[in-house]
Amino acid sequence: MAEVDKFLRMAKQLGASDLHLCCGAPPTVRLHGVLKRFKYHDLTPEENERMIMEILTPKQKDEFKQKWELDLSYDAAGIARCRSNVCKQRRGMDATFRLIPDKIATLDELGFPPVIKKMLEYRQGLILVTGQAGCGKTTTLAAMVDHLNINRRDHIITLEDPIEIIQKPKGCHVIQREVGIHTKSFARALRAALREDPDIILVGEMRDLETISLAITAAETGHLVLGTLHTTNAARTIGRILDVFPPGQQGQIRAMVSESLRGIVSQQLLPTGDGKGRVVCMEILLVTPAISNLIREDRCFRIPSQMQTGVKLGMQLMDDHILALFNRGIISTETALERAVDRTKFTQIDEMRKEMINWDEFKELDDKRKIKACYKRNAVQWDRKIKAHTPINPVTIPVNFYIPHGKLPVDEILAELIRLFPDAKPVQ
To answer: pLDDT tens digit string along 263-274?
Structure first.
């Protein structure tokens, strides 16, 4: 067993996503998005180089000596497969390992809404998963490909750098190709894939004009194409695609994207309020005729407002999902404010909560006039919360009185309030 493997085993046991081996510091893991150091001595340059060189093949060693940096897949037998990077820095040689889950999580296990499966029913077109590095795009794409693999009888070709999650054939014939090992580049592999009778093509990263252009062409010519970009929302994703092309081509590309794009899932991982994990938060765009027209007419700035009208179809803005997680008590006020696009709504909610009466104070209001005044003061929030029906813990009850501890069923709260002032007519 390689010496690196003992640290990978510890990282996996902790549930960490990444392992860092850096000269001058102890081995460090990223746990729930936060870096934590092992209780271990600082790694020396000689020690680090010995551990890293031990896991490289002769070809990889030669490449590293020439380029001073290296991307690779590493399989720690019986522990985990990893996406790895090796580089030189001031103190010596460093390595980073992204641990890949043993099992492919399903879309249901990831808690994704049904609209994602609906999006995957298309036989042709372009579906994009976007977000910053480390936001779970690989996990989402793997779940999507697995869903297609189970439910279709198609030919799937994945182009990755590197191959991370192994997709075994289920209902589909699956070919996985790695840039740098099985092909020279994404663009070259994508061009070849179009001659390999594919039904579904996964492009691990749409990095450049040639790759993006070929992906759009593949989607237009009858293939379902899944791809990724490092953008944070749907409108910016479309803008990023268009901006890659020279001004003289953008009109043509807008028309092509408006016809071929089927949907965009933009995501980020947010720390949970209890600090024990992370939760995925996503923006979902489905390309309707109205949104297709906005893309064609170069009015992408109108897309967010159009998405708000498509909530019944399953669309959602990032801020709306952040608000839902916030209202359910899954994320903190600080996280909501940090990650939201429009922070004003969260600031207003936070201020409103500070002014609320707590349950103990409410129960002590034995004067019916005081209770009525309290109800009237909170009537708007009451109605809004009853409509949303989203009590949280710490619980914001539907009447929007704040309970610092414990849970109280919604029906009990409503019954008590209606008993206290029967003339009130809350929205059911």
So the answer is: 999 999 999 988
CA distance 249 to 138: 31
Of 235, 245, 237, the closest CA to residue 299 belongs to 235
Q: Give the residue with greater pLDDT, 107 vs 373.
A: 107
Cα–Cα distance for residue pair 78/99, rounded to 1 Å: 13
Distance between CA 176 and CA 163 in Å, rounded?
Answer: 7
User: What's the mean pLDDT when you consider all of the chain?
Assistant: 86
The Cα 345–Cα 318 span in angstroms is: 13
Q: Among 356, 130, 374, which Cα is nearest to 232's?
A: 130
For residue 396, is pLDDT > 80?
Answer: no
Q: What is the pTM of this model?
A: 0.79
Compute how many other C-beta atoms are within 10 angstroms of the C-beta atom of residue 51: 20
Q: What is the pLDDT of residues 101-115, one digit of tens each?
A: 889 999 999 999 999
- The separation between CA 305 and the C-alpha centre of its own chain, rounded to angstroms, equals 22
Helix ranges restricted to H, 245-367: 247-260, 289-296, 303-308, 318-327, 333-339, 344-354, 359-363
Tokens of 309: 């009208």
Tokens standing for 116? 């994602």
| 84 exposure class (CB count in 10 Å sphere: 0-12, 13-18, 19+) | buried
